Amino acid sequence: MSFTSRANPGTGPGRVPITDVRVLGAFAHPLRLRLLHHLMRTGPATASRCAEVTGDSASNCSYHLRLLHRYGLVERAEAEEGADARDRPWRAVATGFDFLPDGDAPETLAAHSAVVGAELGELTRLARSFLAGFGSLDEPWQRAAVFDSYALTLTPDELVHLTSVIDLLVRPYIIAHREQVPPEASEISFSVQAFRRPKELS
Fold first, then answer.
1. What pTM, to 2 d.p., does this model score?
2. CATH assignment of 2-201, given 1.10.10.10, 3.30.470.20, 3.90.1860.10, 3.40.50.620?
């Protein structure tokens, strides 16, 4: 369950390539990004439930969910029997999205940079929240946390292969798909960032 910016569309099941600059723009908003993360992580949810998770209002979540629906990123799910039809749940249409710039037009590259930047901002928010509560974690979870960084030498094809292999290894553990989850398991934020090192930082 992650947004991915990569050059190999369709890595694994349930992943949708995004090239339309208008759809890319829909991702580049912190609340919409959090809504998609939540729906991909936990499955269908109403706007009211999304509001509880994001700390925003139900009306604002409903507005942004409708925008995501307009661009084909979420869809309506069946409401539970007896539930208010006006607050039907929403669900994500995929378990992951590939951001693939279509050409080198300035507006396309700007939209791609904006959505990846928004995703990095969300990952930073999660990491800071984790560190703020680090002392309250049980010792096994403290030891299990990883913030590693590697300096690699790869060709573009090798980098695509490496990240594809990681994706295949991770996919069986995606919350929406995993069955028979051990009782001691907990939700994990797992991310991979791989890019050519900028020359000015060499």
1. 0.73
2. 1.10.10.10
